[in-house]
Design brief:
single chain; 456 residues; Growth Hormone, Chain: A; 16 helices; 2 strands; UNC93-like protein; potassium channel regulator activity; transmembrane helix; MFS_trans_sf; transmembrane
Length: 456
């Protein structure tokens, strides 16, 4: 193919245009397509940027189906935690009753949370950086299995070390969960053009709805397996035993109360087998169904040239964080969350429910706690954007303060079983307030920075 110049004295030079030459043709030179006409060739279309490059430029190169992928991942994590804590909550609620001898059950629970405190300082950042959020979550979920397995042979040298392993794994598990939900919430907010704080609250509300239903399933399993009642209608306990229930309960009196007898080992083994299967299922769901955060820039953080913080530096950074006024104001609330959950999971189940109704009734009463807690978690997470945070937290203070005052005066008795369910349900209302409001408050203060840096 040839091209010639114009007429009337114009340049009549003939140039050959190669069909296969693409942009490398002499005919294109000086045709005004580059830099105002003086370039050596036409402007080429820009190359497509990769997902990571788009992310670094603050752009999201995603299809319209991406929001459904995010919702799928949030649902999968919520489902995995529900199954995981079906096992753990069901086991933990029985510890102070089935392993009451020498306080073994309560000591093992204390070991869990003591290890959790230390793990929170040193483990999460290091593990997430090395394994990424998804695989940190998988490994951490597996740390719950030894504690469930130790129920087959509950001794101080089996149950307490297993509790330490669980506590060490729990810190990176919760950190990776929070990182995942917060990060995908930021992406979802961009896709739907909504406020990121509102999306975070909504995601956490849905998560805690699923998570709190674990109380229902875990306690339903324990109550159905422990089918032979040890108290209430099955045995006759004298009035003195009932007088020593509730606020007057003393661990030294457990041998005088038939309601507190340990169930048969066969039933304990059956419960533990079911719970171990739940742990394995939760790990499989996260490993197979949940997408990694790589598509949202997680590798950027792992490839950072910044030096890795040592454990001492992490401890110093934590201490420095405690100097901030907002962090100091959160500390009493987080301490209270630990105390109120320890009370409902250990003291209430043993001193009130098991003492007066028997160990098989623990599951049924805690089902009420779990159901109310789950519904209120979703409700409070949804209405916060309409009425604000203060009224909801005020409700939590009012409910828990009033309930504790009443429980100091209440003398539990099997003739009034509805009071046990009422107390558990109201405690679930207060707990839902702290779970949804304090957790998302601690995260949303830094959510915009996190969504911008994308470094879990």
């Amino acid at each position: 193919m040839t091209a010639s110049g114009g007429a009337n004295g114009a340049n009549n030079d003939v140039t050959t245009v190669s069909v296969t030459g693409a942009y490398d043709n002499k005919a294109f030179k000086g045709d005004g397509t580059v830099g105002g006409g003086g370039g050596d060739g036409p402007i080429k279309p820009p190359r497509e940027i990769s997902d990571e490059e788009a992310f670094q430029q603050g752009k999201f190169k995603m299809s319209t189906k991406e929001k459904w992928r995010i919702l799928k991942n949030v649902s999968a994590i919520s489902c995995a935690f529900m199954i995981q804590f079906t096992a753990f909550q069901g086991t933990a609620n029985l510890q102070s009753s089935i392993n009451a001898k020498d306080g073994l059950g309560t000591v093992s629970l204390s070991a869990i949370y003591a290890a959790l405190v230390l793990s929170c300082i040193f483990v999460p950042t290091f593990l997430i950086k090395k394994l990424t959020v998804k695989w940190t979550l998988c490994i951490s979920l597996m740390c719950y299995a030894p504690y469930i397995g130790a129920q087959f042979y509950p001794k101080f040298y089996t149950l307490v070390p297993a509790g330490v392993v669980l506590g060490i794994g729990a810190a990176p598990m919760w950190a990776s969960k929070a990182t995942y939900l917060t990060q995908v919430a930021g992406v979802y907010a961009k896709l739907t053009d909504q406020a990121v704080d509102g999306i975070i609250v909504r995601f956490f509300g849905f998560f805690f709805l699923a998570w709190q239903t674990a109380e229902l399933w875990g306690n339903l399993v324990s109550s159905l397996v422990l089918s032979n009642p040890h108290g209430g209608g099955g045995h006759s306990a004298n009035q003195t035993n009932y007088d020593l229930c509730g606020a007057n309960f003393c661990v030294s009196t457990i041998n005088n109360n038939e309601n507190l007898e340990r169930p048969d080992d066969k039933e304990i083994y059956e419960i533990s087998t079911i719970y171990l299967a739940c742990i394995v299922t939760a790990v499989i769901i996260v490993a197979v169904v949940v997408d990694p955060l790589t598509r949202y820039g997680e590798k950027q953080g792992r490839r950072s040239s910044q030096p890795e913080l040592t454990p001492i530096q992490l401890l110093s950074a934590t201490a420095y964080q405690l100097k901030k006024p907002y962090q100091q104001l959160l500390i009493p609330m987080t301490v209270w969350i630990g105390m109120e959950q320890a009370f409902i999971g250990a003291d209430f189940t043993q001193a009130y429910v098991s003492c007066a109704l028997g160990i098989p009734s623990v599951g049924y009463v805690m089902i009420c706690f779990g159901c109310v807690n789950a519904v209120c978690s979703l409700l409070f997470g949804s209405i916060m954007k309409y009425i604000g945070r203060a009224p909801i937290m005020g409700l939590g203070v009012l409910v828990h303060t009033g309930l504790q005052t009443w429980m100091l005066l209440w003398r539990p008795h099997p003739d009034t079983p509805f009071k046990f369910f009422m107390a558990a349900g109201l405690w679930g209302v207060g707990d839902a307030v702290w779970q949804t409001q304090v957790n998302d408050r601690a995260l949303t203060r830094n959510s915009r920075k996190l969504c911008k840096s994308r470094r879990p």
